[in-house]
Design goal:
This protein is 33% helix and 33% strand. It is flat, with a radius of gyration of 20 Å.
């Protein structure tokens, strides 16, 4: 007598991966996430591998996890995967202080962010069939 299984939130052709508590502000993480939205998964991996931003390595890990979930859990074709969405949200902030002159202090907040990457299998392009008919 267990609970009923919850319905799947994503479509059958989609898979996702989630990372929470990444040590960077959401604003900076969104710059990297923005660079991979809508791109094929292989192109997004290449862009992250050669990005100069520190956080690109963590984003690459999450994207690789989403690709692995698509392949192993949902039997999707890896070569047809596209980054459908890369969503960034604020997580929490550690509150620290910085000693200032004359016995004063200043607040320092160290921000953390969450990242959700959803990949989907793109449909068969009908453009190839149209070119064959013309030939």
């Amino acid at each position: 007598m267990s609970k009923k299984q919850a319905p799947r939130r994503l479509a059958e052709t989609e898979a996702s991966a989630y990372a929470h508590g990444i040590r960077i502000s959401a604003r900076k993480l969104n710059l990297v996430a923005q660079s991979i939205r809508g791109k094929p998964a292989s192109a997004a991996l290449n862009e992250l591998a050669f990005s100069r931003r520190r956080i690109a390595g963590d984003v690459k890990k999450v994207l690789q996890a989403a690709i692995a979930n698509a392949e192993n859990n949902h039997q999707l074709d890896v070569d047809k995967l596209v980054v459908k969405e890369a969503t960034v949200g604020r997580a929490f902030a550690l509150k620290r202080f910085h000693a200032r002159g004359r016995g004063r202090s200043a607040a320092v907040q160290k921000y953390f962010a969450n990242l959700l990457v959803v990949v989907r299998e793109r449909a068969e392009e009908s453009g190839d069939a149209g070119e064959q008919e013309k030939a």
